[in-house]
Amino acid sequence: MKSRPATSLRLSLLCNAFNSMTQRIYLECVELGHDTEIVIFDETEEALQTIATLQPDLIICPFLTKRIPIEMYSNTPCLIVHPGIEGDRGMSSIDWALLENASQWGVTILQAEEEMDAGDIWSTNNFPIERRYGGAPTKSSLYRFECIHAAVKGIRQALENYAKEIPPRPLDYTNPDVKGTLRPRMTNSDRQVDWLRSAGEIVRIINASDSQPGVLDSLANEKYFLFGAHEEKVLDLSSYSSEIHAILAQRYGAILIRCGQGSAVWITHLKKMNNKNEKSFKLPATMVLPAEIVQTIPIVPEQGLLIKFGSMPRTFQEIFCWQDETIAYLWFDFYNGAMSTDQCVRLSAAIDQTLATISGKILVLMGGFSFFSNGIHLNTIEAANDPAKESWDNINAIDDVVFRILTCKSRWTISALQGNAGAGGVMAAIAADSVVAHPDVVLNPSYKAMNLYGSEYWTFSLPNRVGNERAEELTNSTNPVSARQAVKIGLIDQILGSEFNTFFDSVQEYAQTLAKNPNLDDMIAGKQVNVDLSFNERITQHRNNELEQMKDCFADPMYHGKRRAFVYKSKYLPCVASSMQKGSNGCKYRNC
Description:
The chain is 36% helix and 20% strand. It contains 20 helices and 22 strands. The longest helix has 25 residues, at 139-163. By secondary structure, the protein is an alpha/beta fold.
């Protein structure tokens, strides 16, 4: 056995992709003082060579769908982050937990062995599945919040035990406390929806498959995967068709489908089943269904912006507001955090309405339950007839949102990040007067992954928070930033809470404390003095300069190639992207 360093370990994180789990564990390991390297597992031989060169003390596998070669785990301990309770085994752990309505779940850190997920156990941490806010969890949101939190805790425990030479314990199915078991990979037939069931049951089935792979179903004689389910509890459904599985209405891209027991469910996104000739990707439902069908579906408006404090919309509603005395909490819960042109326009209108009609001194921008924001909507841009023009419209629309935050003179603004933020979503958040975040939040402030310069007034807001040198460093890198790092460099102001379920309570306490601050009126008065005509002219110049850069970016084939690779979940191929014809809507190779 290799000698173990007293404090710092050499760690290799072996993964299929640098996803949210991998990013969070990477940042934790770095902050614990360990020498940590990311190894993307594409080809077995290449991965073996990389590991042989790095010679890590431990290999940690936060997100891996491939079998680890025996040559790797026989030489170096490999710790698998498995999103399941002790004894659970298989590729569909969270899917089964949600489908079967489990009351609690967990994450187990186990050692790689020949039999998958059956290795010795370094740690296991369980959590309740029920949530206080945000409705029932989806597969992706449970993974992103509760599972990541438990995984980080488990990795810390495993690293401590390894350093102390405390060995893992064997998996023992004779122990009555071991509740998990080997489960098969969930199939489309396991996920099948019976539309005679109630909307609540159907939401549970779709949640267990969201955001991957979705639930396969037939609509308008075509096969689609369904995502983003919301039970309808407001409309009088007696005035609509009683035919089961009929599409009753549409709202902001979502469709309402009749279910059994007098109920109905909103489906926000569809993905057409791939065929041999063309791949597809996820989009708002009305962008996927045939136009001739969408034209026949009646449009149903939203309910009012203001809903009961602490309650959830009883229908599909992306933007809503809670009021608590002098504090307004504005939620914009967009699917996967992406903000299309239309969503940005509606959010700008909601900010205007909140400031005009809802009294108070503090405006808290909550973002969504799963993400604060990830900036412009690359999928709707990819689907546009002219992606370059849609990119331009989208960036201007999100700039309009950020402008309202920057120039808000009548309230103290707070951005409260319950979920991660990326690119323009980070810049939107830091436009507020104060920025707070959950400790597990990861920020990706760079636009480089899409070969974009960026806008959202970042050239104004970011240097004001972190200085010019750090601003350049953050936007020229693609490295994620943890909440702790963000506080340290001044990107955000404070970390609140510990558990996901209590984050809003911490935000509310923070806002209420500020509301009682005797200096709050003077703070707002100071904004009214500072946010004057010259201020508006200054930030407008920043916006114009950024948009000049973005205009060039949107004409660059590299942006279109990288966007397409992201949307289709494929590798970016520079040689193919460079062959894009000037003036075309995108790369001529659809599977790029």
